[in-house]
């Protein structure tokens, strides 16, 4: 993957619409990293991301990630967090990052601005209540966003992260363990953000083989925020600023 370091941007949080919203102090830091030398500047990093949970296979996924000392980012749907708050809390307690994936997975480009705001706000509130953490990364359903979506995301101090590559487990014909394993290994690369779904049983079943192989190749599995560490990222922007996947 080509270098994706950003030209420094002026960080100005547009948080006027959110009462008492704290400034984004910066992404979480992986163990052993420093302010002058980001973790992923010294290691071969990849960010695995899982959409649409919490769900039936979340507990199993957490066990697999723990076995390989892997951290990931879970883009959660607000109404599912409301239904499974303990699962969401377990994800956060295990050291994984939780991102906002809207309240009920509506395609935001089909909504009015006020509806977009409500989708993001409700999910943000529910996730924070369940986990004690306010998401700083956001993924629009289907990867579909426009200027209104980015404006709302920025007002909540978040960055839009569609993902850079995908296993395509959202395609029914791809839902075979062997195929998803090969897909994950094929799209893997330093600095990539891999889009997957924790709601797909075959994805969870493929993960041990994927983590085993990538671990042997020297990869460190980090959250999206750890991947962004050391870069100046403006809330409301798309990260990284290059063609994204849709899923």
UniProtKB/TrEMBL annotation:
The keyword Chloroplast does not apply. Residues 44-222 form the NodB homology domain. InterPro entries: Glyco_hydro/deAcase_b/a-brl, NODB_dom, Polysacc_deacetylase_ArnD. The keyword Hydrolase applies. Gene3D superfamilies: Glycoside hydrolase/deacetylase. GO terms for biological process: carbohydrate metabolic process. SUPFAM superfamilies: Glycoside hydrolase/deacetylase. GO terms for cellular component: membrane. Residues 1-25 form the signal peptide. Pfam families: Polysacc_deac_1. One of its GO terms (molecular function) is hydrolase activity, acting on carbon-nitrogen (but not peptide) bonds. It comes from the Bacteria. Keywords: Hydrolase, Metal-binding, Signal. PANTHER family: CHITIN DEACETYLASE 1-RELATED, GLYCOSYL TRANSFERASE-RELATED. This is Polysaccharide deacetylase. It comes from Thermobispora bispora (strain ATCC 19993 / DSM 43833 / CBS 139.67 / JCM 10125 / KCTC 9307 / NBRC 14880 / R51).
């Amino acid at each position: 993957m080509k270098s994706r370091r950003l030209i420094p941007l002026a960080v100005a949080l547009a948080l006027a619409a959110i009462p008492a919203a704290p400034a984004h102090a910066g992404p979480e830091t992986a163990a052993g990293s420093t302010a002058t030398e980001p973790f992923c500047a010294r290691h071969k990093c990849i960010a695995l991301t899982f959409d649409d949970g919490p769900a039936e296979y979340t507990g199993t996924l957490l066990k697999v990630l723990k076995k390989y000392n892997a951290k990931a980012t879970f883009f959660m749907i607000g109404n599912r967090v409301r239904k499974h708050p303990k699962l969401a809390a377990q994800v956060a307690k295990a050291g994984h990052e939780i991102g906002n994936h809207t309240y009920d997975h509506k395609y935001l480009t089909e909504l009015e601005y006020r509806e977009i705001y409500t989708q993001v706000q409700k999910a943000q509130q529910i996730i924070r209540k369940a986990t004690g953490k306010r998401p700083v990364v956001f993924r629009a359903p289907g990867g579909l966003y426009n200027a209104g979506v980015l404006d709302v995301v920025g007002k909540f101090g978040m960055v839009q992260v569609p993902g850079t590559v995908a296993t395509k487990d959202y395609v029914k014909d791809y839902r075979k363990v062997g195929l998803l394993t090969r897909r994950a290994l094929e799209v893997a690369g330093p600095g990539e953000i891999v889009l997957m779904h924790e709601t797909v049983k075959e994805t969870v079943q493929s993960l041990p083989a994927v983590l085993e192989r990538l671990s042997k190749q020297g990869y460190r599995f980090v959250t999206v925020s750890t991947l962004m560490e050391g870069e100046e990222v403006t809330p409301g922007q798309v990260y990284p600023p290059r063609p994204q996947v849709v899923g």
